[in-house]
Write a structure and sequence with these properties.
Layout (H helix, E strand, L loop, with lengths): L6 H10 L3 H12 L2 H14 L5 H13 L4 H9 L2 H31 L5 H4 L3 H25 L1
Helix pairs in contact: 2-5, 2-8, 3-4, 4-6, 5-6, 6-8
Length: about 150
């Protein structure tokens, strides 16, 4: 017995069978561009005298290096296997950058606790910690997705 499948159904099924992680991951990687905005915010806080230079430089490097290239990484994920590996390298750099910012914050908090008052007053510190955790989670999911292919 032979069944006929309509071309419209075949087209729809091809779209549905795309890996769901890829459909979710590309917007998630694009969300990393928000780190560029966090870097601009850090520069503003430094100009106001509320954030130490050591932390500002780390945040600027993170924002420009990772946030500024997030769209490129998202585009690379959609290309072939080799480009996915390049995008995975971007995620490794992103994780290292987050670790670098956290390490700078820890050093400043230990040596100059008063210099981070802007992060301990109100909800700024909690939002910054949440943004860092989400960014790290996106990188980890991205790396595990690339590894699983």
């Amino acid at each position: 017995m032979m069944t006929q499948t309509s071309p419209a159904l075949m087209t729809a099924s091809n779209t549905v069978t795309l890996p769901s992680t890829e459909r979710v991951l590309t917007p998630a990687l694009l969300a990393q561009a928000a780190r560029l905005g966090l870097a601009v915010g850090a520069l503003h806080l430094y100009d106001m005298g509320s954030l130490p230079l050591m932390v500002t430089v780390a945040a600027l490097l993170d924002g420009v290096l990772v946030g500024g290239t997030a769209a490129v990484a998202a585009a690379l994920v959609r290309m072939g296997r080799g480009m996915r590996l390049v995008a995975a390298g971007w995620s490794v750099v992103g994780l290292c950058s987050l670790i670098h910012v956290a390490a700078r914050l820890a050093v400043v908090a230990r040596d100059y606790p008063g210099d981070l008052a802007v992060l301990t007053q109100g909800s700024a510190g909690a939002w910054l910690a949440l943004a860092g955790a989400v960014a790290a989670a996106i990188h980890v999911v991205h790396l595990s997705t690339v590894r699983g292919r």
